[in-house]
Give the backbone structure.
Amino acid sequence: MTELVGNSKLKEIVIVKYAVLVLILLAVGCSQPNDRVLSGVTIFRTKDCPVKNPFLKDSLPDRWRFVKLETSDDCLIGQIQKVVVHKNFIVVQDDKRILVFDSTGAFRNRIGQIGRGPQEQLSMGAFYVDGQGEFIGVYDILRKKIFRYGFDGKLLEKVGYAEEMDFIKDMSLADDQNLVVLFTNAQDYPNEYGVFKAGNYAFRDYALPYRVTGATSCGVAQPSMAKNNGMFLMTSVLNDTLYTWHDGRVDPLYVIQTGKQAFPQKAIDDGGPYDYYPEVVSKAQKKGYSSGIERVWLTEKFGCVEYHIYRGTGSFYMNNQLHEMIFHAVNYLIWDLKTHRAIHYSPAGTWGINLFYPGQKNFCTATENELVSCIPAYEIAGIDRAKMDDDPIYSDPRIREIVDSTEENDNPVIVYYPLDSI
């Protein structure tokens, strides 16, 4: 297994591990069952997974839950960066602040305040939720501290962090003792993740070097992390492998075989550095390679990943310049964490393009037994009412009420999709 080691040795070790894993997969071939386990790694082949919709019963969305977030001058939400549902709280981070709503969508309070006062932050970056400690930790790169707040917005304490926690995009507890951070993807930050002690944010080590780096610190790629109870998973850029944190090390745990070969490192390096991530994705997909796992989510019983299948390219003009656009199909694989039974679906390919279909708007988070989407109000307000009678989804009076009552500048609607069985 791949242990966390110093940065100078890490890339060599991970590449060796990746090469061994590829050889194992080639040896397995396509004749093995879907839940084949080799050296602790479970392999899912999407072509062998039945297509199923686990969210609809009798084609009706009667078990879905809808929460309209309150709209007022105190809580207007901009471009959403992250959503976390914890107990009776919905925590939303946009491009300027962090807001807390209750389970009915009522606004409760802000988290933190930008300013120069002793209790204020100079900057507000990534955040994480400590469910046991019952606090929200917010990253302040300028003060070099994590500000810890109660869910009521009261500042509990400020804790300094190690200098290695620099320019991060996201953070999540892997377990009670370890905090995993996701670094900005750029040449000066070659690693995807760093591991720190959860109590005092002392640095432990780096994990998983980026396979592709950006020309600037704005970042070109963003892996994904998911945690629920004792399970923690991480994706890796342009990689079909899901990794976990276990006993002080990062190990591969799942491989999602989508029918496409892995994108060779040499092909990536020949075109870099890249200005933005879609350049790399386009290159991989056009050449017939996998573009990797995009996102991962965890409930108590199930795991879910999103991956994309290339469908072609188009073009558009912007600022009097011709730009290329990639068309791909969004696909999901959902599996039982205990039995490894898996299903596959694509929301557009299976059920059309209704805005409320599960996965039509990317899932943003998960609860103990639900996947969750955040649907912007301006998209709901733009639904063609004349076509609603032709879609059975709109026979649900709750959805009709949401469509009829939502205005373009309202806050988004949170939709919970129960996932009890597959």
Remarks:
- Helices lie at 7-28, 265-271, 277-286, 347-351, 377-381, 397-405.
